[in-house]
Design brief:
525 residues, alpha+beta, six-stranded antiparallel beta sheet
């Protein structure tokens, strides 16, 4: 059985389209206290441990507590802090944590220097203390973890988080944290040549990956040829079709209107969408389809659908062919991707995110505040299912994946990478399933990425026709793609920071894979 854990925070009280429009904003801000949802990762991890684990919270938090007490900063993190320290100086608790050398040329931590987070360590000790008190009172392991959960969301930790948020101009209330709940859900699924592929539902972009698989399944992938012009063109068009649907139809399923998930994931809809592909040229104006017809219903947003386009003013940003490194770096802002499996058969694919640099620290909790509010839109015209409302979850990019064959795990895989995630994961999956690569080969193989999708962050603009290719793509393929209307740029590494596990049932072993353009790695014991 595959279970979904929804631990995404929600918009706080007072976070409305009118509030942000009054500040002259087209979208919620990308950083600071007004970008923050209610905290979710802590509750999600405690719920997973309480429901499915067997260790105590103290045992699980011990390594994190050691890190909070001090760890040597690696060069990449030191560089990120240095770059964004001018922004973080605006927030008093971030300034206190990161400005270690005031007045010097490098005010933040240096590579190799030990960064200590005593406030975060105190918060972790409070959770351990709440669990210990509950156990002493005769509570079960699960009840004791729930006591720590309550202290986080309804006790002194919540009170300090809210106090600090409001001190810095945020909107959070105690009631926002107390009412928030982790949701244990049934994930969505499609089959690809008999393989069951599972994703979280429309509060993430995960179903777009399933839509892509449904469309790819209609093609003869082997005949197209790995990384040929027709292969790259086909996947670019399929990605654009699925992600246009994402931008229009995806949102928090707990809020009306109800997303047409059954239609979006139907094989008949995939066949219909694939027929829209122009095999001779890129279509820069790919738009959302009409999945309601595949549910036997009328589309209630036909008028909005007709006016939706990435070519309209304010929706499109010109691509120069030189934005590759800068834009791509934004997609590595701080999401974490973890795959884990054990000999008993448990498999976990998890993508927690938020609180990346530049991070706003919430008072003496030591907690980094989320920046995910920016993934909302403020106008129906930008996507009627993802309009900001208090208590609502934004449609985020986070996208863990589990695939089964014959009822047994085949692959667990996910990555950081913002709007590129489904694109890279699609290529990784096809590398393994269609082209016979090992899981590590699939993580390192030359890939490509589209920017024709509306970004899920800050300005929400698209760059129609922009295509980033790997340096190894030969000149004749480049020329053919340019003739098809693509604006090309190039990178040495283009598969992204994927992490993956392949389950080799005939031999009873696990194969790990990790992308090579980040700090990803595998551990086995």
């Amino acid at each position: 059985k595959v279970v979904g854990i929804n631990a995404l925070g929600v918009a706080p009280t007072g976070a409305t389209p009118e509030f942000f429009k009054a500040k002259g904003l087209r979208f919620p801000p990308g950083e600071g206290p007004l970008a923050a949802l209610t905290p979710g990762t802590a509750g999600g991890l405690m719920t997973m441990l309480a429901e499915y684990g067997r260790l105590s919270l103290r045992e699980v938090l011990e390594p994190a507590l050691q890190m909070a007490e001090g760890f040597p900063v690696e060069e990449e993190l030191a560089g990120k802090i240095a770059k964004d320290l001018p922004k973080m100086r605006r927030w008093p608790y971030s300034r206190k944590l990161f400005v270690l050398h005031p007045g010097e040329s490098l005010e933040g931590p240096r590579p190799g220097e030990v960064l200590r987070q005593p406030d975060l360590a105190d918060t972790l000790r409070k959770l351990i203390e709440a669990e210990a008190q509950a156990l002493k009172a005769g509570k079960s392991r699960k009840q004791a973890i729930e006591a720590a959960y309550d202290r986080f969301y309804r006790g002194d930790i919540a009170a300090e988080f809210v106090r600090a948020s409001r001190e810095m101009g945020g909107l959070h209330t105690l009631d926002d944290l107390a009412k928030w709940r982790v949701k244990i859900e049934t994930p969505v699924m499609t089959t690809y040549k008999g393989i069951e592929v599972y994703k979280l539902t429309t509060w993430t972009q995960g179903p777009a990956f399933l839509q892509m698989l449904n469309m790819v399944e209609t093609l003869d992938v082997e005949r197209l040829g790995y990384n040929s012009t027709r292969y790259i063109h086909a996947l670019y068009q399929i990605m654009s079709l699925a992600l246009a649907d994402r931008d229009f139809y995806y949102g928090d399923p707990d809020f009306p209107p109800a997303e047409p998930v059954r239609g979006l994931l139907s094989k008949s809809y995939a066949r219909e969408r694939t027929l829209e592909i122009d095999w001779e040229r890129n279509n820069p104006d790919i738009r959302p389809g009409d999945p309601f017809a595949h549910e036997g219903r009328e589309n209630p947003h036909r008028e909005l659908l007709q006016s939706w386009s990435n070519l309209r003013p304010g929706r499109r940003r010109a691509a120069t062919g030189n934005d590759g490194a800068q834009t791509d770096a934004a997609f590595r802002a701080g999401t974490t991707s973890i795959q884990a499996a054990d000999k008993e058969g448990w498999v976990v694919s998890i993508t927690p995110s938020g609180g990346w640099i530049p991070v706003c620290i919430a008072g003496t909790t030591g907690l980094g505040m989320s920046q995910r509010m920016q993934s909302f839109v403020l106008d129906e015209a930008d996507g009627p299912y993802n309009v900001l409302a208090p208590g609502k979850r934004p449609r985020v990019t986070l996208s863990p994946t589990i695939a089964l064959r014959d009822g047994r795990p085949l692959l667990s895989f996910s990555m950081q990478g913002g709007d590129h995630q489904e694109q890279w994961l699609l290529q990784f999956f096809l590398n393994v399933v269609e082209f016979g690569m090992t899981v590590q080969e699939a993580c390192e193989a030359p890939g490509f990425m589209s920017y024709q999708v509306r970004a899920s962050f800050e300005r929400h603009e698209a760059q129609p026709g922009r295509l980033t290719l790997n340096d190894k793509i030969p000149p004749w393929t480049r020329q053919e793609l340019q003739r098809k209307g693509y604006l090309l740029d190039f990178r040495a590494k283009t598969t992204g920071p994927i992490t993956a596990i392949f389950f080799d049932h005939p031999h009873g072993t696990l194969w790990g894979g990790a992308g090579t353009d980040g700090e990803d790695h595998g551990i086995g014991w």
